[in-house]
Amino acid sequence: MNNITEIVSLEELMYLWLSDKSKTTVNTYRHTIKQFMEFVGKDLEEIRLEDLVMWRQRLQLTYGEVTVNNKLRHIKSLLSYGYKIGYLEHNFGSLIKLGKEKNRISEKILEIEDVQLLINGAKMLRDKLLLKLIYVCGLRVSEAIALQWRDLRRNKLTVFGKGGKTRILLVPDWLVEQLHQLRGGSSFIFVSKNGNKLHRSMVHTMIKRTAQRMGINPELSSHWLRHSHATHALEAGCNLRLLQQSLGHSSISTTERYLRLNPREGSSDFMTIQ
Fold it and tell me: Does residue 75 contact residue 119 with C-beta atoms inside 8 Å?
């Protein structure tokens, strides 16, 4: 085994593994690893293939395929990293295959009327503008709440996305003008009542309550606005490459998923029977 580190504990391994991840990602991954380690009841070095298989079976009793796969990805990533740096002698995670996921995005796309209804239903100006910006620019909620005034230069918005990737988006002039109504003493664009940066849980709660109050799907989340942005942009004629850049997708195949949700043409168009 080719050791390139002298770490001797799982905690040290996780520190190195998660050192370049966002706070949200770190918390999510740590929760999964804690859940896994409590299930197997042994040290990471003692993990074998059957432990992973049994854990997957246990997860499938509680979670849907997407969540099961995400949790397995976290474990596979940790085991792979531990093997690469020489902390682990084997990478049993490479032998675990992920299940096939159904594309549920189509169930998470709002009609334009419902987007407008959600925005109108927000009680605070801050919340209305947050929802507008997420939808109009296709932002992730983590990207939106992290925005500072220095990131907005006229109609150009610098967004710091997943994996430390930066992209610049154009914001309509009318929305820029509205956003400046929020300007106060904080460096952040969207702040809580006490002047601190908004937490994503606050946004989540606000959206759920607004959706319920306006009679919209109670399962709605901020990410539905991002899905809706992508679908509505393509329906209006947006170029796929431009949409990929705007959303910050690394692969065009990720963006192409939206093409299959609302096709403009189908073979049924060529059938003549009535």
Answer: no
